[in-house]
Each structure stands twice: as structure tokens, then as C-alpha cells.
Amino acid sequence: MFILVLVQHFFISRLVILHASADILVVFIAFISMSIGQRTGTTYGFVSGLVMGLLSGNIGMSALIGTVEGFVAGFFHVPEESHATSVKKRRMYYGAGITALVSGNLLTALLNNPLSLPLYVRLLEIVILGTIMSMLLGALMYRFVLQKLLRD
Questions:
Q1: What is the domain count for the chain?
Q2: Is the N or the C terminus of the chain less surrounded, counting Cβ atoms within 10 Å?
């Protein structure tokens, strides 16, 4: 997780399109919440948000957003003993990712406004564009890394 925090802070967050960037940490938190559980996902979200906050100087807001993302993604938890198919696991992964991204980006748009942009611009750019960019990254991660982990 700490390697992903460093990659997010020093590389991925620098790739900005219209004030929005992808978030690899939320994809990771969604995967943890979906596969292990809501409580663990919430803890991972809090810790990753806390570390990102320490790096960015916005400790409280980042920790809150990470906690909410992990909690929300945990609603898509697939227990190991459920005998879910790989198709159901993939759907739950994408559901957890989209829900966590929308909730985290919505909180970011509402709480953080360093450029004094109007609310509708922040919602369009950060929530919609940020979620799309992050889910593209999540789809790539699923295709090349996570698909093997979520097999039957």
C-alpha cells in the first residue's frame, strides 16, 4: 500500500486533465474491501488517506475521504465461502470501484476548492472525469493483475 501511495503522490497525481486525476489508491481500496471485507477496507482507506494527507499537507480531509471510500466499497464484499463466479466477482469489483470513486470524488469536490471554481464545474470535472480516469486505470489493473486473483 505504501508503494501505491508513493506512486499516486509522485506520478499519477501529476497527470491532471481539467483539474482531475486518476486515483490508484481507490482502486486498491475497492479491491481490498471487496475481497477481504468492509472493516479491513475502511482501515486501509483511513491509513492510505492519512499517509496521502501527510504527503500533501491535508491530513484530515484525506483520511476522511479514504475512510469513506473504504467503507462504501465494503458494501460490495464477496465472502470467500460464497462460491461466487468470476463474473460476479468482476461485477462486484467494478461496483465497489465506481461507488468508492464517486463518493471520494464527491467529497473532494465539496470540501476542497483551491482554485475557487464554481460547484458545478468541480462536480463535472472532479467527480465525472476523475471517476472515468480512475476506472480506466482500474480496468487495466483488473485485466493485467487482479483477474488472476479473482478467479474461481
A1: 1
A2: C
